[in-house]
Amino acid sequence: MNEELSEDQTTDELVTQVHQKLVEKLSNENKRLNESEERFRLISEQSLLAINIVQEGKIVYVNEAWESLTGFSIEEMKDWEPYHFVGMTHPDDRERLVEQLKKKQGGMDGYSLNNQYRFFNRSGELKWISIYSKTISYMGGPADLATCIDITEQKKAERSLQESEERLRAVFNSAEDAIFLKDMECRYTQVNPAMEKLLGLPSEQIIGKREVEVMPESVAQRVREEDAKVLEGASVDEESYLEFNGSRRYFHNLKVPLTNEEGEVIGLCGVSRDVTLRKTAALAKEKQLRTEAENSAKTEFLARVSHELRTPLNAIIGYSEMLLEDAEEEGADRYSGDLRKILDAGDHLLGLINDILDMSKVESGSMDLFIEKVSIEEVIEEVVSIIKPLVQKNENQFEVISELPTGLEMSVDRTKLRQVLLNLLSNASKFTRKGTVTLKVEELKEGSSPEIKFSVRDEGIGIDQSKMTKIFQRFTQADEDTTLKFGGTGLGLPITKAFLEMMGGSIEVISEIGKGSAFEVTLPREFLTPEKKSKS
Length: 536
Description:
single chain, 14 helices, Beta-Lactamase, 49% helix, alpha+beta, 5-stranded antiparallel β-sheet, 5 domains
């Protein structure tokens, strides 16, 4: 009896011990589970990742980050199905999301959803998210754990960078300047279309090549020297030229080193701008200034020389006139002829000197105008009195036709108008023998600005049509034989044309060999200054 009781007590103690151990183990398991759940809760709540768990087609858990991302509260999303989010997805991304959800729910072995999508949150704001979803064990059964991160700002930065690169690429490809990149071995790594055009080669034949392989050796040598300086950290900013098919083209070259984040030189970037037009214009301007300076010096020299020549020449002419008068009064006819020749030669030489000085002033732009109101009738009378002896010298008749009202005036440089008419009448008298020289004056009232027309006609030798274009050219004689026969420097008509253009006038000529010539001069009655021209 006592032995049986002892055995029963031993069994109870064993059962009790086992029970206590089971309770203790269960308690430890619950503690570890609680600790695990607490860790998960803390990680989930503090995580920047938006987390949700879907089990048996329902959303059973979301964290605060997911609530913040979508704009819906945890209570509102409770028991949502995953396809609730399909309606929030951007239309362009929905089909791709649905396809991936079907594959995942279809139980494809090892399949996990990992992609980027756009969706609209509760307030309608477009968001970019990167989502990763994988099957896990949760609460004793399988579930889908999805983690999302907001990559909207990253996408904006990527888009901004892409747009910047596209703009840079557009500028690079459309620039008129030749742009190129080189590595540390001075091989071309990138060139734009302008560089292809400059070298006359497609990019495939430039990339990977050095300058000596795409340029003449003489040019390549200079380029190598420039590149060496740039790869040592210097910049190059200078002008140079290239020879293309026998013609020279000028370029403004800018080269700078390319560096990495550590500041190490990894290559160079170069820009070459074609400045041929500007350079040519600058050279032309420089040549013009040099020519103007030379002309100015020439004018000053001629002015000094003409003064030195005219002073003794005027004395020769003056004394010749005095001696001629004395000889004629004393009846010394044997001296009169020689004195007349001396006087004529002096007058002729003085005329040549004056013509050369006038042309030099015209060439240098130093000829001045002195515009004043003058009586046309008085100018005509003055010209006739001077030219009449010369006209009659070749046994010519002189006829003056005026169709102007009495007392008509015009604003003009009196001296230059007189010289124009004297030049034309002198030529008409010189090339006409036993004919008629006619000066006709008339007023033209057509248009808003009245004009005065002077016509000089002769019955002389005429001008060949092939030589008509040369008669107004400076320092050019239309016919050397005629010049040798009749004399003159050939400056009279160019001076005449220059004076008329200065006064706003023009000159035209009609001529026929053997039948004479007609020169028609037109001048405005009222001289128009640049200010008046702009207003009219």
